Every structure is written in C-alpha cells, then in structure tokens.
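G., before I forget:
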Amino acid sequence: MISHKFSTLIGYILLLLFFALFLFGDLFPIPDILTPSENILNVNTIFLSIVLEAIPFILLGVFVSSLIQLFVKEEHLNRFIPRNPILALAPAVAIGAIFPVCECAIVPIVRRLIAKGMPMHVGMVVLVSAPVLNPIVYLSTFHAFQSTPSIAYARMGLAFVIALLVGLLMYLLYERANPLKESKIKVGHHHHSRNRFKEMFDHASDEFFDMGKFLIIGAFLAALVQTFMDRDTLAAIGNGVYTGPAAMMGMAYILSLCSEADAFVASSFQSFATPASLLAFLVYGPMIDLKNTILLFAYFRARFVASLVFVITLTTFSIIMIYQNFF
Amino acid sequence: MKRHHHIFIRSVILLGFTLLLFKLMVTGNIYNYIAPKMLPYFYFALIVFMILGGRQFLRGDREQEAACGCNHEHTYSTSTIKSLSIYLLFIIPVISGFLFSEHTLGASVAKKKGYQFAQIEETTESRVDNPTENNQQEGVKQPEVPAGPDETSLENGVITPKDMYPDRYKEMSTEEKIMLNDDNYISTINLLEEEPETFAGKSIVIRGFVYREPNFPSSRIVVGRFGVSCCVADAGIYGIMVEGEQVLNYNEDTWIEVHGTVQTAMFNDWHLPIIELSSIHEINKPKQTYVYEEIDYSNLEQ
C-alpha cells in the first residue's frame, strides 16, 4: 500500500516539477551551479537531438501500427502475400518502396504486421527496405551527390538486392519461427463495445512507452560515441579495398543517422572515401544501426536480432565487394 | 505498482513532453536540435503528445476497468522500483531539455568531427595510394584524370559546388566583397573551397567561432559554424582558415567577426582558401548558432 501512495506522490511531484521547469526553467540557476563539463553538455545536446528528431516518426509509426492492429485483418494480408516464400518477397519490396517511412517508424509497423500473420522473412524485407528504398531518401541522395547521380541509382539498386537477399537468408535461417518476444501478442481480438478511437490512442500511448525506452537508450549510446570518437581514426583506416567499406559501415552503424540526412554526411566523406565505401555507408546505415538495433530488442528476441544484424552486415559487405569489382 | 499508477505517471510524462516541445518551439531553442525544415513534424508531435497525454489522464481517472480483461500485449510491471527506473529514462530527457537547451556544439566537437583539411595535411604521404582523394587536386599525375578541375570532379563523382549553387557563384564572382550570412554560409564556403583561385584577392567578411587544429601554427585559426541538415547529430563544420598575428588573443569557441582578403594557400598540393587578416573583433554568440542545409529541388533537373 505504501508503494501505491508513493507512486501517486511521485506522479504529482513530477507534474509540479514539469510545470515549474516549463514556467521558470530559465530562472533556475542549475546550469550555473552544476556547471557540467563541455563534453557532458555535448552528449546531452546530441542525445536530445536524436531523441527529438526520432519522436515524430516514432509517433507516426506507432499510429500506423495501431491502425493496422484495429483495421487490418489477417485475411487481408494472406490475400496479398503469395504462399510461396520466395514469391512472397516481391510484394514485400513493393511495400517497402511505397511506405515512405524511416527506420524508427518502421519497427512497430513491421512488428504489428508480423503479429498479424505476415511471414517473418517478408517482414524483414519490409523492415530493411522501407527506410532506404523510398522517394524522399532518393531525392536527398540525388541532391547530396548531384554531380554523380550514379550514387543515388546505385544506392537504390543495391538496397533492393540486399533487402531481397536478407529476406531470403532470414527465411533459410528461421523459416517460419516466431521472432517476436514471448509471443505475447494476441491477434484478432477486437472489442466491439468500446470506442475504436479511444482504443487507438491507448494502443499508441502504450506502444510509445514500450518503444521509447529503447529509443532513449539507443540515442544515448549513439550520442556518447559521437562525442568521444575521433572520426579521423575511422577515416584513417577507410582507404583500403576491404577496410574502406568496412570502416564506413562501422561509421554508419555508430552514427545512427536518419536515412534522409545521411546522404549529406556521406557527401562530406567524399574527400577520403571511395564510391563503394560511400555506398556501403548509405545502404547499411538505414537498414541497421546502433539506435535501431536497440529498438528491435523492444519487440524481437535477442538471438533473432543478433542474427538479423549479422545477416545484414554480411550481405551488405559481400554485395559491396561484388559491386566494387564490377563497377 | 498498479495499472492506474502507470497510466497516471505516463500521462504526466506525456504532458512533460508536450510542455518541453511547446517551450522549445516558442523560444526557438528547438533549432539547437533540429533543422527548420523538420518543424512541421514537431507540430504534429506536439499535438499527438497533447492528445495522448490528455487521453491517458482521463483513462487513468475513469477507466480502471479491469473488466476488459485484456491488457493487450502491454503488461504493466508490478515492481515499483523497476517501473520508476524505466520512467526515469523518459524523465531525464524532458528535464535536461528544459535546463540545457541553450547549449550548442562548439570547438570540442569540431575537433572530433575533424575539419577536413587538417586531415588532408596529415595524410599527405598516403594520399598517392588513394585514387579518389587525388581527384580534387590539379597537377597530380593520374592516368584517367583529365585536366580541368571541373571535368575531374564530374567524372569521378565529386560534387561541384558550382553546379549546385550557380546563383551564388555568379554573385560572388561579380561582387568585390564577399559577405557571409546565415543563408549563404554553406554555399559560399563550398564555392571558396572548390575554386579558391577564382575568388583570390576579394575582401571577405565572415562570422563564426574560433577553432584550432592541433597541428596549426599559433597564428592560424579556423573561423566556422556548424551546418545541420536534419538534426544536430549530423552537423558538420563549415569554416575557413584565418592567418594573422592578431588571432593569438582569441580562445576557442569565442565568436568573432573577421575582415580580410581571400588568398590561396598550398597545403601539400592542395589549393585552399585562407583569409589574410585585416581586422578581427569579438561578437556576441548569435541566437541561431547553426546554419542549415536547404534542399533546393529546383536545381535537381540539371
């Protein structure tokens, strides 16, 4: 009982604190008293910028996921997706290419689709292709590499091939195993008595909190690495045929940039990176990065996430190597 | 911790995010985290937080219906300590957002990100093995590279700022004095770096913060600003080197205005712009410290 009162009390204290900070935050001399070091402030700023930037897209993803939960029936999905597991990859890439969703928003959507009966490997194709195979990303890449449109074409082409391969490999590895945590999702239960909109908002809020904690941890780790890691160290090893793309993939993983912005960052690497390394950065980052790996842990089994990261890494690296040899 | 406690604390946290976003947007400090073009998404997020928070608040109050019997997949943890530490994760960004939103990145981050030319100077010896790195230079013997710098860049996949900012290029070529402001900062610096010879001898006025590379002589600094395309995590430094005895007195992260003349300098075969100082003075840190990359889709057709 004491803990119940305690929880309520905490809630009210928080409420008061937030209002106080909102109204008088500038008057609190806390930054002057604490005087955190420059580095801590930098971590905080980068951390907040990643969290803030992701929030609208997480909310969007959470809403779409709630809509799917309430309005899409399993029969709909089954009608769309061919029984043959290989043929099923085709509509997956199409869905990925149509959804202009970034990598944060796609996670709850894919999880929901899988819970609704989409085969796992098809879901994985959507997961990796949607953030990179989309019109907004194409335009921003085209702009950032304006004088070499081949980078933008190659980015889309490679992403297409890699996404299909990832789906295929995941199918071979897991077949139809359920990758979701504890299979705690009960599908197909609908409430008839309650207002669907209210329900949608409740779903969305629950999901925001389920996912938010992973986003926050992921953003914090990414901010930490960004603040303390010297980019020159990575750039220095970024010259070789193998080490170049590998270093760039490492960079893409750690930086955890939004797929709309990463082309601009990549264009600043042009002075020391080969086109193949740049493509490695541009294709790998949206498919998987540090922040996203941690987001995936929210819904998927740990071993599954680990093998997914491994498969994406291996596939991307091999395809980039092949590309490098032929173009 | 019971279900309605969870819902109550969640509604408070959602309200906290609503207030934080609202305050950041009103004070303009949101631009210390994200680029202006992202703003519409934040109007959306603000409204969603408001609705979700309000809805949770009412839900906690009225609907303690365990009768529904379906906690969906969302099981609420019963351990108070565990739940509160998870909520702490959400509370920290709200509080630090309220308290430290004035902070902006400066010289220490610039060092980590690396001013591109510092790197070039250090890696001179290794440059010969690396074909792409040589592309931008003239006079380096390389079979497949044709003469002029423009074709070189086009052929080998390096951006030519001249194609990207044709209007600014024309402006800078005709004007006697190159003035940098929030809107033309990125384009001007890109153009200067691309063709320092074209603009050599023109006078220039530039504002930014002071930043030194470890291998710089003491009379040289970089004056620059961070350019942001989506959020501060993708910020990169845009700056020009300045040389003159007067720079000795200025510490890193001091905001300055520099008047001088554009010169070209050779650093290990690289032509780089460098400002020969005529006057320098300290200025207040501007309200908006970053400059933002704007996509001009109309140039895409070229």
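The longest helix of chain A spans residues 38-71. Chain A touches chain B through 100 residues (CB under 8 Å).

More on Monday.
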